[in-house]
Amino acid sequence: MIDVYLLSVLAFVAVVAYLIWRDRKHIEWSYGVLFMRRTERFKAFIGAIANVSPRAWKVISTIAVFVCFGAMAYGMWLILGVAADVAAGLIRVPGLQFILPTPSAVGTSGPGYILIPFWFWLITIAAILVPHEMSHGIITRAEKLRLKSVGLLLFAIFPGAFVEPDEKHLKKAPLISRLRVYAAGSFANFTVAAIILGLAMFVIWPAVATPGVTLLDVNATGPAGLSGMTAGTVLDTVNGIPITTSYSEYMSGRGYLYEEIGFPSPNTTIVFGSEGKTYPVTLELQNNHTYMGIMYLPNMRTDAVFFLSTVAPLLTMLWLFSFAVGLFNILPIYPLDGGLMIDSLLQKGSKKYGKRIMRIISFAVLLLIVYVFVGPLLHW
Length: 380
Prior knowledge:
By secondary structure, the chain is of the alpha+beta class. It has two domains: 28-204 and 311-378, no CATH class; 220-292, Roll (Pdz3 Domain). The protein has twelve helices and 16 strands. A hairpin with a 2-residue loop joins β6 (147-155) and β7 (158-165). The mean pLDDT is 88.
């Protein structure tokens, strides 16, 4: 049987390889795996956006500076907390994950890695890189700083983009201008994450979801089956309380009935309702877990299977990875944006010792990250 998904991935790779070969005279090739294509084509476009309202962009980017310093503190608090749990033996799998594409339509995961379907991965990469780099460029121009070029890059199989300010001009700029430029990228990622999360929770899910859940499968000899439930039954109440489903429940993984019944104990009787009929279900203990004997999905106005298998996972990847990349990028590691922000502050305070202090901070944070990743493996 032909794997259409795999063929689409191979076709895309072939097209990209052809475009690189055709434009090879303008592509910089380094170390055999890094391809860079600089262009000045989008400089005017970025400048036009910046010139719409430079004052507004400066206000937004000033807010971004404070947000990013707060995010930096939050990121460090998370890493220190995870490192402490690793040291205590509470975490047995790597606390950080490599996100990699797979040519399959089905994702998977394991210790230290997450494989996501290629097209999901590509869309997510674009949603992260384009706002991030565009924001750097817009704030650079809003600050009246030179922008040398913009471009695309490909590192092995990992696509990327970059905006290249004039470094000499940037270093001579006032401290607040540099901080605004450096903070712009991660702030854009946080903004994209917040917008997508808000749309998923408050617009898209309510637009497609209807009250209740539909039973996909019922164990005839289980508690639910003995009460008279069958596959296709639409449950609309629990103990007289209307059943509602939400994106938050989808994200939590606790089940769409959690808000109505929580984690009930065995021998608890729950009365489900369906179009006026009632089904008293007395829960059992099976394999040390409370057992009801049903599989279900939330009711959807559209195709529930398509929404839950495609739209919801994609939206989740977009906001979650946008936030994660923005948070990682703002950590105090040179030359990440967070490291550049701290380095600018240190250089302002002490040109003699600033660089040395920055190297120490970067090395310490990198050690923590490495420990979070490999520490659980050392406890095996």
